[in-house]
């Protein structure tokens, strides 16, 4: 069935006003639905996100689709799997929201509920130039009201032979610095005390728009309140090496965690060449050694792939030696999975049993050392932001983004506190709060309630009246209303707006045609 998105019918400025309002309402509807429909079987529609990095993740995605179909659910698919290969048999007839089109989920969900199959897979562009993706100022619900996650760019500049994500995300596209700074400022106004910067490669940020990662970071630290913290995401060695001096200065800043995730993947130059990683082991070591010298105590995390095609025992032993030498406190060990459509999938594969054994061997090396034992007895300042998985502790992080477990005192959440380290494990330390120490609140405003909609401007709050603010106190009857019924009037207004604009446009065209006929006759 043919369907045209509203943005193809009326001007962008009008679409922005209407869709942002609908997005705000839709986000609140999702919150209400989540409150009342913890069981997925109760939902009318399943929106399934996906990851294409490993085979098991895609297998889980495929199984979720099968389950939804067995339960006769409407389905909308998102993420890198359908973006990279939308023509796969098991995706036929299903609606897809592309990785750069998530701001249009309202339209896709509504049309799918009507029985239409909608696919929005295009890239966002401005004057022919690819944009970073969906707008940063869209309303959303934070998983943790204290932590804001900001994607600074999408795509990358590499062409790694094992990577499927590039097929979905494409080439590098960075968000402008001013938009990222505004998003950070808005987050702090909403009580956030920690910001995470993410992307496929933060080190490459800005190369497509004539700027750089250090330029962005210096602007961001200007707006971070005292006591709040900024955490950097993953960066590949080639691009961060161009900014080492500036990055060391930034990582020494009191409001930036001294933490960096730099994947090495292998310590064999032969394997790195087959991966097309665009650096050698000596380059990686130079980056690590420089940062360890200039940023004392820095936490450096890395990734390693075991069993890449052609990896010999000698290649693997070089990787083992690297881990033994640097004793990375955070190490992500991945068994190689050939992803369909990638060059590495066509290479001669290492036997499955060998890959498994190498993964076990490297894991054994990683667990042979304890990175935090020497910190017992230290007094540290930590920022408390989460609850532990077992619900026994609060989770805090110190200056080096090392995990510190503290007692579950509600007054600590979202605060910077001082603790004495009395115990350590492989992945954590435990801290006892100092009795006479001051508990510092970095947030400039009270954090939003869990599940509360973030990013609503005054314009939209005024348009929605007191509806959003009164939702937590709504009656049980209102809470049980399905999200689709609450969205219907707003979508009807959107369709009416579209129809009106089309009618006006056709009328103007008719008048112009009549005028031309009269002139030329």
Automatic annotation (TrEMBL):
Residue ranges occupied by any TRAM domain in the UniProt entry: 373-435
All residue ranges annotated as the Radical SAM core domain in the record: 142-373
GO MF annotation list: 4 iron, 4 sulfur cluster binding; metal ion binding; tRNA (N(6)-L-threonylcarbamoyladenosine(37)-C(2))-methylthiotransferase activity
Membrane-traversing stretches: 499-520
MTTase N-terminal domain span: 1-114
Localization (cell): Endoplasmic reticulum membrane
InterPro entries: Elp3/MiaA/NifB-like_rSAM, Methylthiotransferase, Methylthiotransferase_CS, Methylthiotransferase_N, Methylthiotransferase_N_sf, MiaB-like_arc_euk, rSAM, rSAM_horseshoe
Cofactor binding note: Binds 1 or 2 [4Fe-4S] cluster. One cluster is coordinated with 3 cysteines and an exchangeable S-adenosyl-L-methionine.
Cellular-component GO terms for this entry: endoplasmic reticulum membrane
Stated family: Belongs to the methylthiotransferase family. CDKAL1 subfamily.
Record's function text: Catalyzes the methylthiolation of N6-threonylcarbamoyladenosine (t(6)A), leading to the formation of 2-methylthio-N6-threonylcarbamoyladenosine (ms(2)t(6)A) at position 37 in tRNAs that read codons beginning with adenine.
Name under which the protein is recorded: tRNA-t(6)A37 methylthiotransferase
């Amino acid at each position: 069935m043919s369907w045209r998105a509203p943005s193809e019918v009326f001007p962008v400025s009008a679409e922005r006003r209407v869709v942002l309002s609908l997005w705000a309402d839709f986000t609140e509807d999702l919150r209400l639905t989540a409150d009342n429909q913890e069981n997925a079987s109760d939902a009318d529609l399943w929106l399934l996100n996906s990851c294409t990095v490993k085979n098991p993740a895609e297998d889980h995605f495929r199984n979720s689709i099968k389950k939804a179909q067995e339960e006769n659910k409407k389905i909308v698919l998102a993420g890198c799997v359908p973006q990279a290969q939308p023509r796969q048999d098991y995706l036929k007839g299903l609606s897809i929201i592309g990785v750069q089109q998530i701001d249009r989920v309202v339209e896709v969900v509504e049309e799918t509920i009507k029985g239409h199959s909608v696919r929005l897979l295009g890239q966002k562009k401005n004057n022919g130039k690819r944009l970073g993706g969906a707008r940063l100022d869209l309303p959303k619900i934070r998983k943790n009201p204290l932590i804001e996650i900001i994607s600074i760019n999408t795509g990358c500049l590499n062409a790694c032979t094992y990577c499927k994500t590039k097929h979905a995300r494409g080439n590098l596209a960075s968000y402008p610095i001013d938009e990222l700074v505004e998003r950070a400022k808005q987050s702090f106004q909403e009580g956030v005390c920690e910001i995470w910067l993410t992307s496929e490669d933060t080190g490459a940020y800005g190369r497509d728009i004539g700027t750089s990662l250090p330029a962005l970071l210096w602007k961001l630290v200007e707006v971070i309140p005292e006591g709040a913290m900024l955490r950097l995401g993953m960066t590949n060695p080639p691009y961060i090496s161009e900014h080492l001096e500036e990055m060391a200065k930034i990582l020494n800043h009191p409001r930036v965690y001294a933490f960096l995730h730099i994947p090495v993947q292998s310590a064999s130059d032969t394997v790195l060449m087959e991966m097309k990683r665009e650096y050698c082991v000596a380059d990686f070591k130079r980056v690590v050694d420089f940062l360890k010298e200039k940023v004392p105590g820095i936490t450096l995390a890395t990734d390693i792939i075991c069993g890449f095609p052609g990896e010999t025992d000698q290649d693997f032993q070089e990787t083992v030696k690297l881990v033994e030498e640097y004793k990375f406190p955070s190490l992500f060990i991945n068994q190689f999975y050939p992803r369909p459509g990638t060059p590495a999938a066509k290479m001669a594969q290492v036997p499955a049993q060998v890959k498994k054994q190498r993964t076990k061997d490297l894991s054994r090396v990683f667990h042979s050392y304890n990175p935090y034992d020497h910190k017992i007895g230290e007094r540290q300042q930590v920022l408390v932001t989460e609850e532990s998985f077992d619900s026994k502790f609060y989770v805090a992080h110190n200056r080096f983004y090392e995990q510190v477990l503290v007692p579950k005192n509600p007054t600590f959440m979202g605060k910077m506190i001082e603790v004495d380290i009395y115990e350590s494990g492989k992945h954590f330390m435990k801290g006892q709060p100092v009795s006479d120490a001051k508990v510092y609140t970095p947030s400039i405003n009270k954090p939003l309630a869990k599940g509360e909609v973030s990013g609503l401007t005054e314009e939209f709050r005024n348009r929605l009246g007191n509806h959003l603010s009164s939702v937590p106190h709504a009656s049980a009857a209102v809470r049980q209303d399905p999200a689709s019924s609450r969205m219907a009037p707003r979508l009807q207004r959107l369709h009416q707006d579209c129809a009106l604009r089309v009618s006006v446009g056709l009328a103007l065209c008719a008048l112009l045609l009549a005028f031309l006929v009269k002139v030329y006759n």
